[in-house]
Structures are given as structure tokens and as C-alpha cells.
Description:
The structure is a homodimer. Chain A is 46% helix and 15% strand. By secondary structure, the first copy, chain A, is α/β, with parallel strands linked by helices. Strand 2 (115-120) of chain A pairs antiparallel with strand 2 (115-120) of chain B. Chains A, B: This is LacI family DNA-binding transcriptional regulator.
Amino acid sequence: xxxxxxxxxxxxxxxxxxxxxxxxxxxxxxxxxxxxxxxxxxxxxxxxxxxxxxxxxxxxxxxxxxxxxxxxxxxxxxxxxxxxxxxxxxxxxxxxxxxxxxxxxxxxxxxxxxxxxxxxxxxxxxxxxxxxxxxxxxxxxxxxxxxxxxxxxxxxxxxxxxxxxxxxxxxxxxxxxxxxxxxxxxxxxxxxxxxxxxxxxxxxxxxxxxxxxxxxxxxxxxxxxxxxxxxxxxxxxxxxxxxxxxxxxxxxxxxxxxxxxxxxxxxxxxxxxxxxxxxxxxxxxxxxxxxxxxxxxxxxxxxxxxxxxxxxxxxxxxxxxxxxxxxxxxxxxxxxxxxxxxxxxxxxxxxxxxx
Amino acid sequence: xxxxxxxxxxxxxxxxxxxxxxxxxxxxxxxxxxxxxxxxxxxxxxxxxxxxxxxxxxxxxxxxxxxxxxxxxxxxxxxxxxxxxxxxxxxxxxxxxxxxxxxxxxxxxxxxxxxxxxxxxxxxxxxxxxxxxxxxxxxxxxxxxxxxxxxxxxxxxxxxxxxxxxxxxxxxxxxxxxxxxxxxxxxxxxxxxxxxxxxxxxxxxxxxxxxxxxxxxxxxxxxxxxxxxxxxxxxxxxxxxxxxxxxxxxxxxxxxxxxxxxxxxxxxxxxxxxxxxxxxxxxxxxxxxxxxxxxxxxxxxxxxxxxxxxxxxxxxxxxxxxxxxxxxxxxxxxxxxxxxxxxxxxxxxxxxxxx
DNA sequence: GGCTGCTATGTTTACGTAAACATTTGATGG
DNA sequence: CCATCAAATGTTTACGTAAACATAGCAGCC
Lengths: 355, 355
């Protein structure tokens, strides 16, 4: 036996995954043989079709059990043309919102008999996104849920297999895609109005990063709500969602004596902001009221406990799955945006203005 | 045409996913026809095998591009006997550690050409876990990474397909499974020693929930480190990892005048603890030093910024993937525990004791 | 009693890929 | 100039499942 043959042998065994002498799993044919029926009857039992005698059914089930039969999902997918799997593309799981949404998607999908395949995108550049979609093309998914800004999606989406349905979270591209998102504007309006109603002359804003649609919409809604109330919007500060960036912005805001109320675009930045205010001796809420967005689990344990806008990520995730399955089943390119309402959670970081 | 026939028609079309008149994706045969070669040659090009003329290769690639050909992963998996997918079973993604580990797993897996399928387990009961494994049995995965206590796994794992490799995070079952975990004991020792070195007589401990091995190991290591230093361990408090539970425990600890240093089993509980201390007028770190575990991104923005034990979740995830792929390739039931070192991050929540 | 119609089951085939085996082509050397 | 050999490409087959079609058996009916 020469070397070439040995190599070929090793490759063959590896490809078939029997290297360790493992027993390949039982197939329908094996079960059929043991039960003394045709493999089609096994298939019928396996898929719960009617038209099988109770007696035959029990024989088949017994044979399945004895052989430890498990349907081969690859063969099933090949035959049926669907994988019962949903792909989820998202940026880093560093933000609470993405994670909670993902979790809800996975749970909802599971209850519908769908699995969820995760496609993390390391860096939010178009190249990276395109790379993720390119991987996705060869991946066994029937549909995709995108948790990111859709402008990164645009260039890449063209390369998707045509039958794959897409639902987008966190975007305003409802005219091109099916979009599910939190009612950013409504939540912001509630937050700003809460502060105005307490008697503050105006509300300052610590916004999220420039690239983010969620941040953009919160900032827009902040401006609009102030305008509707006839107030002048103070200069805008910006952070990158992190507590650290909130702290830096907070150091500047703390120097402004006229600033008595701040709406931070998320809870983490609110946390950093409050630290900065505290360090500069400006008491929350006595001198400055602070309100956040998200209602992360820790928000109630901040110093002081944070008033914030509660997002129902679980509902967002559930609606995503619902929408994507509906699209798959109807096969129709349905569009439009579904908004999930928010709820203002009042804690102790907001109060009437000083004087 | 009677009703029965209509029903049968509809079902057939639905099963083949052509309801909307969609064009099925191109297969190798289609590419082969267009390129004027055999489908085997297309296969060779698709898999990058040698022995194809540059000219032929280009023709095939051009045909692929024209038809928008994408390999059918179900067929590929069926033929090859592997799915290039790793399943990850985990409890709620509510804890930072699980999420960060998951993210690292997904990233590492992607760079190895593997996809990650998520299997959330709603409630950590044996029944739920068994359910997840049962779903897994029919799922297209080559290996599984379990992020949970292994005692829940034991009863369920027997039902796994025999060729599926398992790697476990967060467990001490290294003699039964391949385990990757943070060096809980080392991190705890560093935290407790830090406080002792600052001059505290002893260190109090706010532990995690009873069911958790991670919590158990941190508590054990806390006791051992104190014993080695000849100190008596004060009574143990317990939380459930949440900031809220840390707050409740903190209210009691705040009443203890002799308590000058607390090691909390995670950062969230440390946050709640510090809020309680603050409310009761006990200043951190002047009167009480507090140290956490995890180093969540917000820890540096707490009031005061939290000294804590940094966990390298990325490395844990990377090692999980490495281990599980190694097991798959060698097909050997390798066992043992790999520990990932921690790093003490000193911020302003710890100081020398009062007096 | 033979025909109709229904139910339970068996047989054939196709899904798309890639290994194994077969054939063609062209170059090299005696 | 033909035998030899290797490289390039083609043909056959099997992976496990389930739809489509085929058949056997049996009850009900005129």
C-alpha cells in the first residue's frame, strides 16, 4: 500500500466521521427493517401522518427506540427545501438591547420549532456586514433578522438568496423592509414631557453616537417635543452609549449652572453622567434631574435609582419572529414598520427644579 | 377538480416553497450545463480542489456568478456527514458572563468556518434542559457547548447523539467532561488578599445563589483564603446575582459596624450593596471597602468606581471553540479543566480601613 | 358476485452534493 | 510512432428523507 492510498483512506474516513470506529446513526431504512415495514411507513410515523394502524405505529416506535433513531435533519432539509432555522445578524452583543432582543427571538423561534443561528459582525463597516451576509448565503437559514442600522445593510442585501426573508430591527427603512422597533419617539416624548411637567424650563440631551438611527430618532424626538412645548433646545452633547462617554459629557454639563434636567439616550450614559455630576458636587435630583432610556436591570440600583424609559425587548423579539414567519409562509414582500410601545418608569433621579 | 385535490395541491406547493412562483436556486447541475462541464467539475471548483485548468475554473466561476449559485448546505451536510455548526446551550442571556462568552464563541467559531446555533433554556430545571437537549438531537450540530451548571446536564446528556462532542463552561465536572472556565479561585484569592493587604482584619462576603457552581467556588475560595491568612470568616450573605438582591443584603451589612470590607460575588450585587451602604450613610471606600467580580463595562462608572476581578470571557469562548473542534477532529473523549486567569482591576471602591 | 371506493402499506423517484471510479487527452521517452 | 503515464474531466453512485404514485385488501352496495 503506497502513501497516496493511505492519504486517500484517511481523508475518506475523516469525511465520513467514522475515524474513531463510531457507529453511524440509524436511518429510516434500519428502523423499517427492524419493524418489518417499508421506510415510507417509518417516515409517516416520524411525521405524525394519519393513515397508520395503531399496531404498526407501535412497532415502528419500538424499533426507533431500540435503534436510537433520530431523523437526519440534513436529509430532511434537503428534501423539504427548508431548514427551520432563522439567522440573526447583529453587532457586538455588548448592548443590552441587542442581547435582550436576541434572547426573545431565540425563545420565540424555539416555541415555533425554529432554531436560531447567530452571525456576529465584529466591526460595523459595510465590508464586515457584507462578509456576514456572504457567510449567510451558504448557511442553512430560511430567514434573517437583522439587528442593526439598515444603511449598512443596503449594499449587502442584494447578495442574499432570493427566497430568504428579512426583518430588520432598529431602522426606519419601513418602506423597503419589514421593520420592528421600539417606539423611540414615543418613549422620548414621555421622558421629555415628564421633565417639563415637573417644571423644568428646558431639557438638555446627551445623545448617542452619530451613526445610530436609534440615537438619531431619540435626538429628533427630543427636539420636536421641546419645540412643541415652545422651548429652545440647549446645545446637544454626544456619547457613544458607554458609561465612560456619559461621564465625559457629564463633566461639561456639570459646569453649566442653567442645566437642571438631562435626558440621556441610554441608561449607561445616564450612569456616567450621574457620576460626573456627583463628582462636581451637583446633587441628583435636587439640583439636576436625570432620565435614561432602556431600563436595564441595574437602573433601579443606581445612585440615585434612575428614572428611565422602559423598552419591551421581549416583545420586539417576539414580533420579529412572528413577522418573519408570516413573510415566509405568505411568501409576500410585506413592508412597513411595527412600533413597540414604551413605558416611563419613575424612580428617584427626577424631581422638580431647584429654587 | 374536487376539494381533496385542491388541498393536496396546496400542500405540495407549500412544501416545495414555490408558492409565490419563486425561482428555485441554481444547483450544480445548472452551473455545469451553462459552463459546459460536468457537475463534478463544478464541485471541484466549489471546494477548491486542484486538478482543474485555470480556464475551466474561470468558466465555472463565471457561470456560478451568472446564475447566482450558492452551494446547498443541506445537501452538502448530508453528503459530508457534518454540518459545520456548533450548538450553544445556555440559560438566560441576562448575565454578562454568558453573553460575553457566547459572543466570543460565535466569533471564534465563525473564524473557523463554523456557525453557532443558539438554544436558550428558559428555566434552569432538569426538565427544561432535557427539552433543550431533545430539540438538539434533531438539530444540525456537530458539537455542543454548554454554558451552565453541569449537574443539570447529567441526566440529560445521555440522550445526546453519540457523535456530538460536548464542552462545558462554568462547572467543576472536569473528570467527566471537557471544561473551560474562569479561574474563580484565583480571582477570589486576589480580591480577598487585596483587602487583607490593605489592612482589613477580615473580609465579608456577599455570595451568589446556592445552585451556582461559580458562586460556590467563589465562596469556597473566600473561606480558604481567609483561613490561610488565619482570619475567621464572618457570616455569609447571599444574593441572586441581581443588583436588587445586593441592595437587600447591603442593608443588613450596613448595620454591622465591624464590617469594613466586602467581597461581592459579582459587580451587579456590588452595585446594589454600595447603594445600600450609601443610603445608610456608610461611605465607600472610607468606611467600607467593596470589591466585585466580572469587571462589567459599567463598573468603572459606579459611585465610586468599583475595584473588581476582571474576567476574560473572550478567552473562555475562544478556548471552548478550540477544545470542541479539537475533540471533533481527534474524536477522542478528552477530559479535564482549562482555567482562564483573571486580573484584579483596582479602582476607588477599596482603601485602607478606618481609624 | 362483481364493482366501487376507501384505507393501509409498499415502490419509485428526486432533492443537491461529492466520493469513487472511469475515461479522455496530451506529453514524454524509447 | 506507439506505449506509458499523468493530468483533466466525465459518469455513477450513495447520503437519508418524503412526495408521488402504485397496489393490496376489505367493506358496502346494487
